[in-house]
Design a protein that fits this description.
17 helices; alpha/beta; 12 strands; globular; Oxidized Rhodanese, domain 1; single chain; 349 residues; five-stranded parallel sheet; Rossmann fold; 12% strand
Length: 349
C-alpha cells in the first residue's frame, strides 16, 4: 500500500518507527529523507549491472536478475539490521519513484507481518516537497540576523540562545562548514542533502516566534542558500555583536584548535588566499603558522583580509540594526550574558 503526503512536515511527523531508503548507497549519500536508514535492495554495482543487461540484452533477463538480487539482499537485511524488530514494527519504505525496488522489498516485509507503507512517488515526491517548501513558497518565518566581524563568537551565541529556549537556524551546522576558508568540518552534504536538512529544520520552527540566524553570504562552502531564504535574510532586522580584535584573535585560536594542531592543513587553507592577497603576504602568514603564533596570525588575517571584506559586504547588505552587544573579552561569562539578552530581545518581538 502506498501513502501520499502533501508537505515536508507531513512526512517527518507521520510517526513511522523507521524510514527505509532502499536505493543504492550513492543515491542515499547525495540526499535522503532525514533520519532514514539505507538498506539497499541493489547496491551501486548491482544496479549498474541490471541496467546494462536491460538496455543491451533483454528487459526480461534484467528483471529476473534483479529479482534474484533483491531477494538475496532483502534476506540479508532481515537477518541483519531488522532481525530484532517486533511484530508491531511499522516502517515507511521508499526508492527513487515508488516503483519496483520499494514495492518488492515491502511485499517481503508484509509477508512477515510487519505493517509496511510505501512512499507514493518515492524520493521524487520528497524532493518535490522540499523544492516547494524552499523555492516555491514564501518563507513564513520571521528572521532576525546576528551579525559581526569574524571571531565574534556568533555561532557559539546561536548555540547558547538555543539552550535558553530561543529559536535558532544554524546554517553553518546544516552545511557542515564554518563559513570561511577555515570552515570545512569534514565532508559537506551535497546541495540536495543540505536542502533536505534545511527543510527539516525549518519544519520544526514556529513561524509565530522569531528565528535567530547568523548573517552569511549566499554560499556556505560548496552549498548555496535557497533564494527565498537569502532574500529574507537580507531584509531581516540585525543584532550586531562586537569585540576587540585581540579578543577575537584569542577566541579564534581556541575555536579553531583542529587547525592549530595541524599546521600543514592550516597552511593549505592559507594558500587559498593567494589570488586575493598575493604570495608575499600569504608567505608571511604561513611563517606565522609554522612558528605557532596563531593568535598573531588570526589578528593579521582579520586586519588584512576578513575585516575589510566584512565592511564591504555589510555596506551592500545592511539590514536595520535593532541592537548592539559588546562582548568584551569574549569570555564564557560575556557570551552567556549576551545570549540571555538576545533571548529577552527575541521574546519581546
Amino acid at each position: 500500500m502506498s501513502m501520499s503526503f502533501s508537505s515536508v512536515t507531513d512526512v517527518l511527523s507521520a510517526g513511522f518507527d523507521t524510514v527505509i531508503d532502499v536505493r543504492a548507497p550513492s543515491e542515499f549519500a547525495e540526499d535522503h529523507i532525514p533520519g532514514a536508514i539505507n538498506l539497499p535492495v541493489l547496491d551501486d554495482a548491482e544496479r549498474a549491472r541490471v541496467g546494462t543487461i536491460y538496455t543491451q540484452q533483454s528487459p526480461f533477463l534484467a528483471r529476473k536478475l534483479g529479482a534474484a538480487l533483491v531477494a538475496r539482499n532483502a534476506a540479508a537485511h532481515i537477518e541483519g539490521p531488522l532481525a530484532e524488530k517486533e511484530g508491531g514494527w511499522r516502517p515507511l519504505v521508499y526508492c527513487w519513484r515508488g516503483g519496483q525496488r520499494s514495492n518488492s522489498f515491502a511485499i517481503i516485509l508484509r509477508q512477515i507481518g510487519w505493517r509496511v507503507e510505501v512512499l507514493d512517488g518515492g524520493y521524487k515526491t520528497w524532493r518535490r516537497l522540499v523544492i516547494g517548501m524552499l523555492h516555491d513558497t514564501p518563507l513564513p518565518h520571521r528572521l532576525v540576523l546576528i551579525d559581526g566581524n569574524t571571531g565574534t563568537a556568533k555561532t557559539d551565541l546561536l548555540h547558547r540562545v538555543r539552550a535558553l529556549g530561543g529559536q535558532v537556524l544554524d546554517l553553518e551546522g546544516l552545511a557542515n562548514h564554518r563559513g570561511s576558508i577555515f570552515g570545512p568540518m569534514g565532508g559537506q552534504p551535497a546541495q540536495r542533502g543540505f536542502e533536505s536538512r534545511l527543510a527539516e529544520e525549518l519544519s520544526r520552527l514556529d513561524p509565530a516566534r522569531p528565528v535567530l540566524v547568523e548573517a552569511e553570504s549566499s554560499r556556505i562552502g560548496e552549498v548555496t542558500l535557497p533564494a527565498r531564504l537569502w532574500r529574507a535574510m537580507c531584509a531581516a532586522p540585525r543584532i550586531d555583536v562586537t569585540a576587540s580584535r585581540p579578543a577575537r584573535a584569542r577566541y579564534l585560536a581556541e575555536a579553531y584548535a583542529d587547525l592549530t594542531e595541524d599546521v600543514s592543513k592550516m597552511q593549505a587553507r592559507l594558500d587559498q588566499l593567494v589570488p586575493l592577497q598575493g604570495h608575499e603576504r600569504v608567505k608571511t602568514w604561513r611563517e606565522m603558522a609554522e612558528e605557532g603564533a596563531f593568535a598573531a596570525l588570526a589578528e593579521a588575517l582579520m586586519g588584512q583580509h576578513y575585516d575589510p571584506r566584512y565592511e564591504k559586504s555589510r555596506a551592500r547588505h545592511a539590514p536595520d540594526g535593532i541592537a548592539e552587544f559588546d562582548l568584551g573579552d569574549l569570555s564564557v561569562g560575556a557570551r552567556d550574558e549576551a545570549a540571555a539578552r538576545i533571548v529577552s530581545l527575541l521574546n519581546a518581538r
